[in-house]
DNA sequence: CTCTTGTACCTAGCACTGCTAGCACCTGGA
DNA sequence: TCCAGGTGCTAGCAGTGCTAGGTACAAGAG
């Protein structure tokens, strides 16, 4: 019965891998939720372990360290953000409206989920971006910007224009969150920016 | 000789206060230098105390906590940055050239002193900005933006335009430092931005 | 010049952090 | 039924920000 045994081995191994993947996801979600509820300072390995109802060292069998957990949260965040930008963009046929919709989606995402946005764009440094080794989630997010900026680029270099427009949105998102801009004028700032890039 | 004694007391007290102020400055400078050399993670109270050749608790007789030290570094950074922007701006009579000079000065400052820039704009949250209680250093920095944006504002609300322009610069500075933009295209990004705000 | 008062400063320690070594137990296979 | 292997735990390390306690020196009074 060695063949039957080996088949059972394989299925058991598969189940274990599935359970591992689930637990990995559980850790990522718990870290994100904790960060969104109390900020990243509250995300300690002890509190996180308590939340997923495992002991501390279990985290290290899934991730190299705390930074890797934050990075995993960020990558998941890129997937969420891309989906949102995509939905906003494809809801409009006019390039100008599509650009506005994407910008609104971007700023709303940053405002509604500041901890997640921080993990994606402020905290982490070693998430390589423009290179070929970038995670697909990051490349997809960039693709949304390409889709919406390219039709309006005119004579400008598309990638430069994307970088400038994205930087402008990022600046508004972060400075606004840091309470360095007037909260009453979010709409006015966005309108002014869009008037320069449409 | 009580009057002579009291006079001496006063001068002694003045000397002590002077020494205290000097030491306070010493701590701020040491914190900034350490951060610029090895990053803010390396700025621990122990290393900082060792650097100024005092014991750890001395720091707490000058500052409420580590955050207060970072904040003091940031405030000093605003003074430095304002001076630099002012020199760049006043070197040109044409409003368009003045705007460009200020933008270049801003981005150069951020690129050359990223740790200081972080303390000023990324790390600290409780440095109130637009309000009347803002430290004068912050208000002065904002004033430089007013001086350079106002002549070109046209029909736009000046303050909105400042916020948008400043945010765009801030976004380029931080994303560039995080290696999320192409280092080869700094000039192109700045040119494109200026073409929209001149 | 001596004594007392105040204060400036340091040593030691607390509760916490990220991370790891080593052991116990339990599950799967013969 | 017994063995092997891996899973997950307890305990501990070095380092963090911050504070309580005591010591020793300097300043003023007699």
Topology:
The structure is a homodimer of 198-residue chains.
Chain A: H1 2-38, H2 45-52, H3 56-62, H4 66-90, H5 95-112, H6 114-123, H7 136-149, H8 158-177, H9 186-196
Helix pairs in contact in A: 1-2, 1-4, 2-3, 4-5, 4-6, 4-7, 5-6, 5-7, 5-8, 8-9
Chain A binds a DNA duplex (30 and 30 nucleotides) through residues 5, 8-9, 12, 44-46, 54-61, 65-66.
Largest interface: A-B, 34 and 34 residues
What CATH calls the topology of the largest domain in chain A is Tetracycline Repressor, domain 2
Name the beta content range of chain A. Answer: under 5%
Let me know the CATH homologous superfamily of the largest domain in chain A.
Tetracycline Repressor, domain 2
**Topology pattern of chain A, helix = H, strand = E:** HHHHHHHHH
**Rg over CA atoms of chain A:** 21 Å
Biggest sheet architecture of chain A: none
For the record, the CATH architecture of the largest domain in chain A stands as: Orthogonal Bundle
Structural class of chain A: mainly alpha
Summarize the amount of helix of chain A as a percent range. over 70%
CATH C-level class of the largest domain in chain A: Mainly Alpha
- Morphology call of chain A: globular
Terminal-residue CA separation of chain A: 70 Å
SS field, number of helical segments of chain A: 9
Q: What's the number of structural domains of chain A?
A: 2
Oligomeric state of shown chains: homodimer
Give start-end ranges of low-pLDDT stretches of chain A: 1-6
What is the average of the pLDDT values of chain A?
91
Structure report:
The structure is a homodimer. Chain A has two domains: about 1-60, Orthogonal Bundle (Arc Repressor Mutant, subunit A); about 70-198, Tetracycline Repressor, domain 2 (Orthogonal Bundle), CATH 1.10.357. Chain A is mostly helical and about 200 residues long. The first copy, chain A, is globular and about 55 Å long. Chain A is built from nine helices and no strands. The termini of chain A are far apart. Chain A binds a DNA duplex (30 and 30 nucleotides) through helix 1 and helix 3.
């Amino acid at each position: 019965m060695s063949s039957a045994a080996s088949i059972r081995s394989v299925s058991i191994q598969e189940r274990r891998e599935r359970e591992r993947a689930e637990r990995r996801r559980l850790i990522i979600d718990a870290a994100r939720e904790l960060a969104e509820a109390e900020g990243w300072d509250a995300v300690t390995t002890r509190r996180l372990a308590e939340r997923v109802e495992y002991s501390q060292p279990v985290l290290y069998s899934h991730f190299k360290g705390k930074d890797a957990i934050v990075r995993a949260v960020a990558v998941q965040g890129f997937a969420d953000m891309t989906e949102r930008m995509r939905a906003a963009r494809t809801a409009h046929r006019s390039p100008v409206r599509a650009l506005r919709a994407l910008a609104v989606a971007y700023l709303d995402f940053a405002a509604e989920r500041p901890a997640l946005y921080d993990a994606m764009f402020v905290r982490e440094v070693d998430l390589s971006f423009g290179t070929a080794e970038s995670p697909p989630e990051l490349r997809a997010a960039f693709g949304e910007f390409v889709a919406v900026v390219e039709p309006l680029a005119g004579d400008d270099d598309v990638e430069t224009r994307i970088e400038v427009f994205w930087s402008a949105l990022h600046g508004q998102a972060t400075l606004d969150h840091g309470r360095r801009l007037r909260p009453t004028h979010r709409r006015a700032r966005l309108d002014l920016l869009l008037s320069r890039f449409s």
